[in-house]
Amino acid sequence: MKLEDIIKGIQPVEDQWIQKSRERTAQLVMPTRALGRLHDISERLCGIQKTLKPKVNRKAIWLWPEITESLMKVSALFRSKLPEQWSEPF
Question: DSSP readout, 23-36?
Fold first, then answer.
């Protein structure tokens, strides 16, 4: 596939799908917007693919410093809620 073909296939993002995705993530059992930028990325994928279950075939993960910091905060919060005997190393 040529770059020109890819560019021609790009469609505008559907705001209604982004809103549906936001409503869905608001129902998840976690602190509101706990994953920060990852929520934004997943909602945008929903808007691009027009589905609440977007697929990414060629996966790669790039952790920006602010995402890493957010994940560490969520992890620490989660660990602080565990019974003491569960938080000890195995």
Answer: HHHHTSSSSTTTTT
pTM over 0.70: no
Q: Which long-range contacts (CB under 8 A, 24 or more apart) does 29-32 make?
A: 30/74, 31/74, 31/77
pLDDT tens for 10-59 read: 888 889 999 999 898 888 867 777 788 888 888 888 998 899 998 888 76
Asked whether the CA dihedral 3, 52, 75, 65 is positive or negative, the reply is positive
Which residue, among 9, 8, 26, 74, has the nearest Cα to 42 in the 3D structure? 26
